[in-house]
Amino acid sequence: MTLAETIYQHSLSLPEQAAREVLDFVQFMEQRYCVTATDTLPQTLTPEQRAAYARLSRLQIDWEGKPITDRDEANAR
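Above: the chain's sequence. Below: its structure in token form.
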């Protein structure tokens, strides 16, 4: 099992809010070490797909600081 898989397995046992904190920390570490989502993409993607991922990785949405726990809650807003 890889380190990433081990982290994932541990995250499955956490309550939703704790898992969100872990995600926030991972995203913080990505920023700290200048890692983007496109750095870890499979090499089989086309240049167009890589460009789309790059645009998506820069997308930021302000939800007024409120976490959205699921799609139904997001649609209710």
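The chain has four helices and no strands.
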